[in-house]
Amino acid sequence: MVPDLTLGPVTIGTHDLFVALGLLVGLAVFRAEARHRGVRDERLLVIIAGIIVGGALGGRLSGVLQALVREDGTPLYLVWAFGGRSIIGGLLGAYLGALVAKRLVRYPYRTGNLFAPAVALALAVGRIGCFLTEAPGRPTSMPWAVHVDPVAAATIPDCPGCVAGVGMHPSFLYEAAFLVATFLVLRFWVRDRIDAPGEMLPLFLAAYATFRFAVEFTRANPVVVGGLTWSQLVILAVSPLIVRHLVIQSRRGTYDRLLLRVSAPATPERSTS
Questions:
Q1: What region, left, alpha or beta, does residue 260 occupy, with left being phi > 0 and alpha being psi -120 to 50 degrees?
Q2: DSSP readout, 102-169?
Q3: Residue 101 predicted with pLDDT over 70
Q4: H helices then E strands: how many in the chain?
Q5: CA nearest to 66, candidates 76, 55, 57
Q6: pTM (2 decimals)?
Q7: Phi-psi region for residue 216, left (φ > 0), alpha (ψ -120 to 50) or beta?
Q8: In this predicted model, which residue has the larger pLDDT, 6 or 75?
Q9: Bridge-partner residues for 255, per DSSP?
Q10: What mean pLDDT do residues 160-181 have?
């Protein structure tokens, strides 16, 4: 575990550093996607700000809600300031932040195709920071299991496997690998086979929700009810909306080229991405 990194005279939290790097990577990918699609609109800067603010608030609020469920007595202001941040809550907050920002600047176009690859790669980078600073996962006997140094184990909350010195799933690395693979699929397969504006984002959310629900069984997150964690319960709550959207779009033929049902070339997108 590497909770802090020293860069010359400056010491910075490892997790914070990788979150910042993820944000920069995401912005770079977004810029490349916008350039590829010929999208140039200053209002997108406001939408990006809305996504960042909404994601930060959503992640923190989700941490507060989890603390309320646990009822462990930790003051909520401390949870808000220093508690864990949920990726699921962050994604929901970012989505709402984008909607609010679009309404404020009267931006009428869908932006999912611009943001989906950026979000996937940004999350992958951020997950490296999680792997270096948080409880790796549940105990496992797999040969790739990770062990935590006994000295560092005492600094990691909610990690009985760390204290016991047993091997644990590197669950954050599973997630990072999946997100990198998803970015590559979106960038080199899906992008040129989706004509409908914004449809890359629902596909990404569906894939990530499915994977995250499964990988959660290897995570060290506490079980809330029915053997499921807080993240899994949130995924179950929002999944019907995602499935409904995918079914409707599939019936409209939106994904025909992805399913190799037709071979007609895609029409290049512009400002409706």
A1: left
A2: HHHHT--S--HHHHHHHHHHHHHHHHHHHHHHS---SB---TT-B---HHHHTTSSS-HHHHHT--B-
A3: yes
A4: 10, 4
A5: 76
A6: 0.87
A7: alpha
A8: 6
A9: none
A10: 88
User: What's the N-to-C CA distance of the chain in angstroms?
Assistant: 40
pLDDT, mean over the chain: 86
Main-chain dihedrals φ then ψ at residue 228, nearest 5 degrees: -110, 150
The β-bridge partners of 5 are 12
Helix (H) / strand (E) containing 225 = strand 223-225
Contact between 88 and 62 (Cβ < 8 Å) = yes
Q: In the structure encoding, which two tokens stand for residue 200, read together?
A: 């890359």
Query: In whole angstroms, what is the distance from residue 152 CA to residue 155 CA?
Result: 5
User: Within 168-229, where are the H helices?
Assistant: 171-185, 200-215
For residue 78, the model assigns a pLDDT of 52
- Does position 233 have pLDDT exceeding 50, yes or no? yes
- How many Å apart are CA 142 and CA 166, to the nearest integer? 11
Give the SS3 label for residue 10: strand
Amino acid present at 92: L
Do you know the residue count of the chain? Answer: 273
How many other C-beta atoms lie within 10 A of the C-beta of residue 249? 16
Residue with tokens 């860069």: 7
- Which residue, 67, 222, 18, 70, is CA-closest to 137? 222
Confidence of residue 224 (pLDDT cuts 50, 70, 90): confident
Q: Which two tokens stand for residue 90?
A: 């962050």
Task: Say if residue 272's pLDDT is above 80.
Answer: no
Q: How far apart are CA 98 and CA 269, in angstroms?
A: 20
H/E run at residue 98:
helix 87-105
Residues of the chain above pLDDT 90, percent: 55
Q: What is the mean pLDDT of residues 124-133?
A: 92
Whether 168 and 136 have beta carbons less than 8 Å apart is answered as yes
